[in-house]
Amino acid sequence: MISEYERLQREREERRLQQRTNPKGTISVGVDATDLFDRYDEDFEEVPGGGFPHIEINKMHISQSIEAPLTNSDTAVLSGSLSTHNGNGGGNINMTVRRVTSAQGWGEVEFGAGDILGPLIGLKVFRNLTPRCFLTAQCGLQFSPRGVRPSCSLMMARHLDQNTMGYLQWRWGSNSAMTTSLVRDTKSSHFTLALQLGVPHSYLMMSYQYKFQDEDQTKVKGSVKTGWFGTVVEYGAERKISRHSVLSATVSMGIPQGVTLKIKLVRASQTYLFPVHLTDQLLPSAVFYATVGPLLVYMAVHRLIIIPYTQAQKEQELELQRKSSATDIAKKKQEAESAVTRSKRKPRSSMSLCLCSAWSKTLNSSSLRPLRCAVCLHMNSFFYVQAGLPGFYDPCVGEEKSLKLLYQFRGVMHQVISADTEPLRIPKQSHRIESES
């Protein structure tokens, strides 16, 4: 009990620290694997090692942020990011101070600096207008060698119903635009319709995503995005591989983007993204390998590494639990034997129900362990295996098990097998053992 209390106390402290700092991180590694499918045979003889496809990392992005509560209403956020693309890159660092003014809104001031764009000063305000409508306003000044670049944006959102949101956004600055969008999100689907009019980009975009989830928390998603920039079809799967980790793979194909495989791992508040660009064209072979390859790799890793590792961890925890509870089990065994001895001395009527023997069978072992029970119960009584019934004790704490029970009623033997967590009602006619002729 002391060790369990200490473990819960440590978990509580870790959750409290997580809530106070709220660390978030993203690592994105772009891989250029177009040489696997877009190859030119006439160049192989001129380039040394040209017979092997050339795969390279062409871009990377790393960002991290943490929060530091200053007062009950003030919070400081420190964030930074680094990006590279084809050998060129840069980074910036930002500090934001946010104040909650009331239950209806908050405001924040941002200060930033980078090695490319220079210092940044920004102001952002959030306000609930009605219970179903809110407004966000943002303005900033970006200092660069070419002068000061002001920017401003205004967004209004409204809940149209329980699953539908409407957005209207206006941006002014280097990319001025007016955008309106409609988003509907349910357990089985996600639909987005957006229209943007701006300089230099204007488009009409529609996206539909179907979500399927099974009992193992595996989600299958598919979406279609179309607009003036082209059409993109995406499909993929997402699966929870541990308590805090989610792994997903998505195949994206379109014109003129080509085929890209996106692998994402989310571990708590950390995100790792690996977009692998396979080809600039729509090749059936690239689509096939992008679909089948990750599935085969996951099945191999799951069967050869994940399953043996989790089983070994579970067996190790059970062994430690057996050692720590060995003394307690021996004590309960002695108490059960004493209860059996006392119950045997009590007189029984012909209408009484007598438990002759009870055996526990674990799911990880074929061996049976006696529960030392020979107590008498009144007819039509209920009991649970772990309810502290006199004469019973748990010989395998922490393991999933079933109960095999042999009892006598009105001089006739009965037998039943029940799961550990299910209630058992005895006697019943279906438990009766037919005598051999």
From TrEMBL:
Coiled coil: none annotated. Residues 1-28 are annotated as: Disordered. Keywords: Chaperone. GO terms for biological process: cristae formation. GO terms for cellular component: mitochondrion. Residues 1-17 have a biased composition (Basic and acidic residues). It holds the Pfam family DNAJC11_beta-barrel. Residues 60-272 form the DNAJC11-like beta-barrel domain. Residues 386-427 form the DnaJ-like protein C11 C-terminal domain. The keyword GTP-binding does not apply. It comes from the Eukaryota. InterPro entries: DnaJ-like_C11_C, DNAJC11-like_beta-barrel, Mito_inner_membrane_organizer. This is DnaJ homolog subfamily C member 11-like.
